[in-house]
Write a structure and sequence with these properties.
- The protein folds into three domains: 49 residues; 46 residues; 61 residues, no CATH class.
- It is built from four helices and nine strands; from the N terminus they run αβββββαββββαα.
- The strands form four sheets. A three-stranded antiparallel sheet has the order 3-4-5, with no helix packed on it. A two-stranded antiparallel sheet has the order 1-2. A two-stranded antiparallel sheet has the order 6-7.
- GO terms for molecular function: ubiquitin protein ligase activity; zinc ion binding.
- InterPro entries: E3_UB_ligase_RBR (IPR031127), IBR_dom (IPR002867), TRIAD_supradom (IPR044066).
- Keywords: Metal-binding, Repeat, Transferase, Ubl conjugation pathway, Zinc, Zinc-finger.
Length: 219
């Protein structure tokens, strides 16, 4: 009970003192003490009676006491430190921006180089670069596995894929398109007597005629 009364009296006294314009709280970390300081600019050094921390009240806001340094010197030093800090911050910001610009340039150059030496998977869009092997590609990205021609990106699967349609599924400009293969036989090629293929030939005769035309073209 005595403790509660003492605490109440202490708070009441603090409330009364804090109403005084000369009452100052100590700025030391962890100290909640305060006292009346009425010496003004003639005696600007505030010393906390509880913890001994000193402050200079000649500044607004109040600052820690500056040993062996006049208030004008302190103000000049703080102004220089602030200016230097701002200059350092601006220099660091400019450096970061320059590094970011160079990094973007390198990334763009790298992306351009990858784009020149790779193709985009038609299934997922990831860039794929072939280092060796045939042009039948299978995307290795997890969950994709799309199969396509590295030259023209024609799909191998699906209704119009190479597995189902054959080499005609390749792009007409692709070297694997049927019309560009060495042994391709055009159904409109002329026969040996200068005429067109007989449209009335049955399947077996037509196959024989195509084979003979292929032999003639290879000779």
């Amino acid at each position: 009970m005595l403790t509660s009364n003492y605490r109440f009296d202490e708070l009441s006294m603090r409330s009364l003192l804090s109403a005084d314009k000369n009452f100052l709280y100590c700025h030391a970390e962890g100290c909640s003490s305060g006292q009346i300081h009425d010496t003004g600019v003639e005696g600007p050094i505030f010393r906390c009676t509880a913890c001994g921390y000193r402050m200079c009240t000649a500044h607004d806001p109040i600052v820690p006491f500056h040993e062996n340094e006049a208030c004008t010197q302190y103000n000049e030093r703080i102004a220089q430190e602030i200016a230097q800090a701002e200059e350092d911050e601006e220099r660091e910001r400019n450096q970061q921006e320059e590094e970011a610009r160079i990094r973007r340039q390198h990334e763009a150059a790298s992306a351009a180089e990858v784009a020149k030496s790779s193709v985009e998977c038609p299934g997922c869009g990831v860039q794929i670069q072939k280092t060796k092997g045939c042009d039948h590609m299978t995307c290795g990205r997890n969950g994709c596995g799309f199969q396509f021609c590295y030259v023209c990106r024609a799909p191998y699967t699906g209704e119009h894929g190479i597995f189902r349609v054959g080499n005609l599924a390749h792009s007409p400009t692709c070297r694997y398109h049927s019309t560009r293969l060495p042994n391709f036989v055009d159904l409109d090629v002329e026969s040996s007597d200068g005429g067109d293929y007989d449209e009335d030939l049955d399947d077996e005769d037509e196959d024989d005629e195509i084979l003979r035309a292929a032999i003639r073209r290879s000779e």
